């Protein structure tokens, strides 16, 4: 047993643990009991088996589940393993199961089973092999802040099988290899360092890069590890990258180059390479007009001021493939079936559920989700076939030629290749040549008294067939030629068949007259829906010398009268339309009713005759297949209403969405495309809202509904039914349509006015599928919007909102499909008046008798709606309004003034302003003389202090009082004192004489 992954050269051999289970010559030996391997890799599980002699093994397979009847279901038929499972059987009873591109959902116990030709039947053996699929991840311990940390390369669910070698990367550069999952050195807690690990031989399945400290380290994450695309198409290879420091350069390169070379400068990619994307967002390499030589591993690197992302970190492996048509078998014969397969060298990742288009001689033949096209070979010359994929019609495969010029028998000739009709139905005239059922032709040889019976068709069967003859339903094994002679006097019935096709026996004919032993069935094969009702009819004759005593229907499981069995009670009924016509009706059909039904006549003289072969009844479910079930808007979806067999000759299908019938397809089409086949029933509805194109498909059990392009309105639950059996609906299939964010908007909570200091939340809402993954907030700054918030959530919270937060905001929502942007919303933050101040006009000295205006200014939202003026130590307001005019000023007007500004939020007071009033002005000469006098008085005071004390009654004194608020208030003095207005440093000068004159 070996673990393998695409592109890896390492093969890890597992230890061989024999697990033999069974007895009495029956056994299965598994190589190992359990396997743990990496997601995305390939695994092989092997076993050998034995069985007693005398048995022949007819089938071998692996399984994990049983069906409703308890029988194991082969993995090769499980849709979850489609294209990923391979069986290999050797000549020594060994069997190997290979599963590629492992997924975590593949974790299960796998068991082997084989089927023999005898009644022992299946031989499943447990416990089997337990497979666990896991991912790699780097664990950093301790998780809290520490100077040195330990790195461990661990798996998420189980220890890897074998003894893997671990590879370590730091910032994308190969660091070390070791058999221990723990990195041998402790690492420093650099904020810019990231680490990743891989298992040798599976380097492309490395773990995500993780930060040692924080979440801002340098790292690269590739969107896909492997991509397979068609030659000539366009591919996008994407990654996201983060640099701890500012990025100085970025580019993509091929890993097979000795020195990393920017693809945009590589001559081999000239004009075919384009870079798109942004920091932290998907950064995409787009290559157009792909060639096979473009198959390589592509890596991304970037540089910052301190590091360059390593060149050894595995990137995305691209495989470019062509479409090819394979023909099997290699040699064709008339009447044989040819299978054409449209294949690629790898599974297309960009088209996970492709629709294949087939072309014959350059003209479109039909389309289907199956890569195979099967048809019966007939004469017609050499035809060329090719295939393409829907959406990539121009990238078709090379043509292959199937030569049928030497064959004859099957032919369809159309009267016209084009029809234009105004009515919703039209006749399609054509002539056909095809082999009819086998018939026995009787010719009489009157001279010999014999008759010649010939088993014939309308054309000559190829391959020298061997014929089988029946008399009264009993095989005449010794007769193998196409003709047989009988006596004219015989009254028996004869029929014939071709060996290997005994079920296609001809109708019985009477050698003489019309009353021989025979049963003729109205239909040889019937296909009906589960839950419906069926009529199985026949006509019969018997020799006139016998008298009919009874008749009934039977099967191999119920060899006597079917109506007598308990499970048939109330469901099986016999009816006779005429004397020799018999009908059996079965109601409430189930899949267990599928069988071959035969009619038996019982007569006198122990006469018994059964019509063999009988009527093959197949009971089928009606199923809806959706391809794919999840799409993005603008893509194509194909829905198929399928039955296991053709129900009726030309069934009409009805489509339902969310339980409501869609437009009836019978009367809604207006375009007919003819294809050289004889049965038509496939419907393409295009576009979704106006069904107008009918494409004729040669398979009578499919009805196809195509939504192209699909929109989000098409999402829902779909089902289908057959006309006339509308009550029997297929199980619903859900169509999920992915689309980018739309109707993106911003809302504010709480609603209403926003007041400074409160908590406000902006919420970004968007309709998207899948849901939005990240949000980005922007605020308008001047004429441009700037990134506002690093939060990637839908909420932008202002816990204590400020007036500076006022402005226009919008958000962007991203969900990996595209980005949706909201309309801008204006957020107006209300706040109380602040920075309130008072100014005086005119400035300078205020003189008694003049006028002055005080103005109150402040910042407020909404604007101030009320101003009130106050004078300190005065209870009642002085005035209202933004300006306060004081006219004809007098000395009593001196003092401190302040204003109160008020809006609906609150109010705020200004700082007090000191008003000092000056008396009437004197001349400059008077002022100068006054100063000289004051100086002389001071000198006299110093020299004659004692004298002035005695004369205290005649002296005057100046008193100065200082206010608590730091401003100087002047006590009342003579009228001729001069007052000056100065904040905090007022001063006064008084003349020596009361008159102010010398």
Present the secondary structure layout.
Elements: E1 2-4, E2 12-13, E3 19-21, E4 27-30, E5 34-38, E6 42-50, E7 57-66, E8 72-74, E9 85-89, E10 94-99, E11 108-116, E12 122-134, E13 136-141, E14 148-155, E15 166-170, E16 173-178, E17 187-188, E18 194-199, E19 210-211, E20 219-222, E21 226-230, E22 235-242, E23 247-254, E24 273-276, E25 283-287, E26 296-304, E27 316-321, E28 324-328, E29 337-343, E30 356-360, E31 363-368, E32 372-376, E33 382-389, E34 400-403, E35 411-414, E36 430-433, E37 439-445, E38 450-456, E39 467-471, E40 474-476, E41 483-487, E42 493-498, E43 509-510, E44 518-521, E45 525-529, E46 534-541, E47 548-554, E48 572-576, E49 581-586, E50 595-603, E51 607-610, E52 615-620, E53 622-627, E54 630-632, E55 637-643, E56 653-657, E57 660-661, E58 672-673, E59 683-684, E60 693-695, E61 702-707, E62 716-722, E63 733-749, E64 754-755, E65 760-769, E66 774-781, E67 784-789, E68 795-798, E69 807-814, E70 819-821, E71 825-827, E72 829-841, E73 852-861, E74 866-871, E75 879-880, E76 883-886, E77 895-902, E78 907-909, E79 913-915, H1 924-943, ...
Parallel strand pairs: 5-12, 21-27, 45-52, 54-63, 58-60, 64-72
Antiparallel strand pairs: 1-2, 1-6, 3-4, 4-6, 6-10, 7-8, 7-11, 9-10, 11-12, 13-14, 14-17, 15-16, 15-18, 18-19, 20-22, 22-25, 23-26, 24-25, 26-27, 28-29, 29-32, 30-31, 30-33, 33-34, 35-36, 37-38, 38-41, 39-40, 39-42, 42-43, 44-46, 46-49, 47-50, 48-49, 50-51, 50-52, 53-55, 55-61, 56-57, 56-62, ...
């Amino acid at each position: 047993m070996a673990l393998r992954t695409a592109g890896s050269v390492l093969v890890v051999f597992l230890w061989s643990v024999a697990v033999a289970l069974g007895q009495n010559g029956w056994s299965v030996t598994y190589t190992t009991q359990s396997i743990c391997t990496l997601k995305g890799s390939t695994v092989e599980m092997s076993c050998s088996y034995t069985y007693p002699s005398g048995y022949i093994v007819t089938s071998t397979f692996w399984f994990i589940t049983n069906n409703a009847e308890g029988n194991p279901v082969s993995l090769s038929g499980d849709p979850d393993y489609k294209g990923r499972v391979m069986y290999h059987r050797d000549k020594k009873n060994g069997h190997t199961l290979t599963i590629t591109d492992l997924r975590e959902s593949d974790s299960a116990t796998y068991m082997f089973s084989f089927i023999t030709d005898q009644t022992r039947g299946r031989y499943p053996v447990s416990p089997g092999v337990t497979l666990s699929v896991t991912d790699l991840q780097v664990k950093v311990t301790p998780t809290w802040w520490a100077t040195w940390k330990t790195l461990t390369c661990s798996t998420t669910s189980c220890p890897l099988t074998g003894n893997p070698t671990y590879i370590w990367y730091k910032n994308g550069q190969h660091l070390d290899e070791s058999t221990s999952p723990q990195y041998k050195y402790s690492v420093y807690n650099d904020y810019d360092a990231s680490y990743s690990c891989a298992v040798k031989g599976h380097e492309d399945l490395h773990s995500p890069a993780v930060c040692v400290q924080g979440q801002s380290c340098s790292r690269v994450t590739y969107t896909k590890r492997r991509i397979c695309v068609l030659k000539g198409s366009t591919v996008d290879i994407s990654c996201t990258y983060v640099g701890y420091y500012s990025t100085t350069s970025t580019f993509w390169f091929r890993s097979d180059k000795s020195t990393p070379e920017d693809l945009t400068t590589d001559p081999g990619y000239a004009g075919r390479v384009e870079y798109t994307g942004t920091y932290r967002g998907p950064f995409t390499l787009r290559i157009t007009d792909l060639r096979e030589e473009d198959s390589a591993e592509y890596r991304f690197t970037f540089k910052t001021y301190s590091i360059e992302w390593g060149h050894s970190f595995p990137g995305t492996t691209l495989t470019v493939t062509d479409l090819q048509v394979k023909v099997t078998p290699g040699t064709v014969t008339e009447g044989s079936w040819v299978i054409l397969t449209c294949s690629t060298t790898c599974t297309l990742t960009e088209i996970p559920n492709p629709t294949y288009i087939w072309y014959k001689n350059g003209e479109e033949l039909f389309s289907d989700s199956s890569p195979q096209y099967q048809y019966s070979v007939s004469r017609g010359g050499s035809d060329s076939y090719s295939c393409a994929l829907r959406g990539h019609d121009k990238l078709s495969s090379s043509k292959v030629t199937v030569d049928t010029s030497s064959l004859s028998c099957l032919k369809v000739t159309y009267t016209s290749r084009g029809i234009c009709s105004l009515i919703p139905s039209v006749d399609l005239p054509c002539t056909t040549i095809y082999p009819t059922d086998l018939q026995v032709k009787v010719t009489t040889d009157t001279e010999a008294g014999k008759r010649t019976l010939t088993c014939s068709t309308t054309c000559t069967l190829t391959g020298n067939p061997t014929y089988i003859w029946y008399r009264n339903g009993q095989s005449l094994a010794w007769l193998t030629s196409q003709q047989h002679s009988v006596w004219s006097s015989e009254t028996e019935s004869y029929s014939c068949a071709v060996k290997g096709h005994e079920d296609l026996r001809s109708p019985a004919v009477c050698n003489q007259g019309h009353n021989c032993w025979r049963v003729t069935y109205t239909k040889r094969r019937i296909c009906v829906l589960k839950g419906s009702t069926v009529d199985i009819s026949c006509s019969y004759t018997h020799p006139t010398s016998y008298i009919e005593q009874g008749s009934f229907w039977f099967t191999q499981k119920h060899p006597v009268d079917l109506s007598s069995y308990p499970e048939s009670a109330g469901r099986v009924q016999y009816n006779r339309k005429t004397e020799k016509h018999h009908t059996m009706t079965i109601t409430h059909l189930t899949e267990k009713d599928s069988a071959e039904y035969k009619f038996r006549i019982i007569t006198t003289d122990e006469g018994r005759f059964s019509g063999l072969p009988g009527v093959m009844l197949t009971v089928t479910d009606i199923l809806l297949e959706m391809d794919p079930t999840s799409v993005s808007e603008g893509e194509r979806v194909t829905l198929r209403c399928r039955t296991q067999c053709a129900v009726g000759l030309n069934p009409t299908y009805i489509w339902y969405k969310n339980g409501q019938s869609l437009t009836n397809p019978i009367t809604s089409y207006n375009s007919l495309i003819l294809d050289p086949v004889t049965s038509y029933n496939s419907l393409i509805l295009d576009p979704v809202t106006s069904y107008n194109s009918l494409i004729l498909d040669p398979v009578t059990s499919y009805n196809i509904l195509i939504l192209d392009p699909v929109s989000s309105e098409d999402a829902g639950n779909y089902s289908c039914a057959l006309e006339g059996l509308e009550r029997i609906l297929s199980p619903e299939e859900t169509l999920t349509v992915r689309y980018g964010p739309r109707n993106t908007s911003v809302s504010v909570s709480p609603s209403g006015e926003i007041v400074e200091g409160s908590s406000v939340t902006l919420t970004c809402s968007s309709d998207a599928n899948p849901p939005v993954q990240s949000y980005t907030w922007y605020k308008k700054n001047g004429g441009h919007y700037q990134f506002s918030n690093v939060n990637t959530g839908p909420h932008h919270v202002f816990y204590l909102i400020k007036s500076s937060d006022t402005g226009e905001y919008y958000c962007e929502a991203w969900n990996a499909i595209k980005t949706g942007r909201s309309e801008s919303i204006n957020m107006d933050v209300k706040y109380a008046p602040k920075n309130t101040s008072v100014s005086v006009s005119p400035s300078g000295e205020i003189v008694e008798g003049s006028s002055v205006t005080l103005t109150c200014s402040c910042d407020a939202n909404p604007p101030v709606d009320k101003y009130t003026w106050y004078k300190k130590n005065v209870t009642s307001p002085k005035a209202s309004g933004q300006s306060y005019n004081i006219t004809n000023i007098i000395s009593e007007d001196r003092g401190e003034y302040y204003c109160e500004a008020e809006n609906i939020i609150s109010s705020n007071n200004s700082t007090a302003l000191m008003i000092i009033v000056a008396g009437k002005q004197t001349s400059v000469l008077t002022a100068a003389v006054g100063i000289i006098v004051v100086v002389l008085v001071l000198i006299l005071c110093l020299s004659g202090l004692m004298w002035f004390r005695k004369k205290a009654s005649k002296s005057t004194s100046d008193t100065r009082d200082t206010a608590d608020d730091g401003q100087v208030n002047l006590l009342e003095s003579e009228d001729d004192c001069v007052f000056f207005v100065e904040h905090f440093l007022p001063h006064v000068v008084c003349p020596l004489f009361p008159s102010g004159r010398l």
